[in-house]
Amino acid sequence: MIYLKNLILCKEQANYILKKAPELIEDYKNKLETKSKRLLISNNIDENRILTEVAVYADKVCIDEELTLDWIVISKLLRLSLKPVVV
Predict the structure, then answer these.
(1) HSE on the CB side for 7, CA within 13 Å?
(2) Comparing C-alpha atoms, which of 28, 24, 3, 10 is closest to residue 75?
(3) What are 12-44's pLDDT values in tens digits?
(4) Each residue of 26-65: b (16+ CB within 10 Å) or e?
(5) If I label 81, which of 45, 48, 55, 63 is the partner at 20 to 30 A Cα–Cα?
(6) Distance CA 25, CA 19 (A)
(7) What is the rounded distance in angstroms from the CA atom of residue 18 to the CA atom of residue 63?
(8) Residue among 22, 27, 26 nearest 63 (CA)
């Protein structure tokens, strides 16, 4: 029973993340823009630094694959947990 409650909690958390994701992505975008502008204003433009910031941004905002895998695993485990056991 605790196992089933934990699965339901995981599903609720995945839903929360899915709803919150657009807001977080916008926050990351704003931070990246601020950092980029600061680098451009300082005239100390390091191409590697900009590429690093963009890579970090891309890594933080790309959660689609993880959420999809979470949903697949959680849904399958819930189906298996609710399936009658034949003895």
Answers:
(1) 16
(2) 10
(3) 888 888 888 888 888 888 888 887 788 778 777
(4) eebeeebeebbeebeeeeeeeeeeeeeeeeebeeebeeee
(5) 63
(6) 11
(7) 9
(8) 22
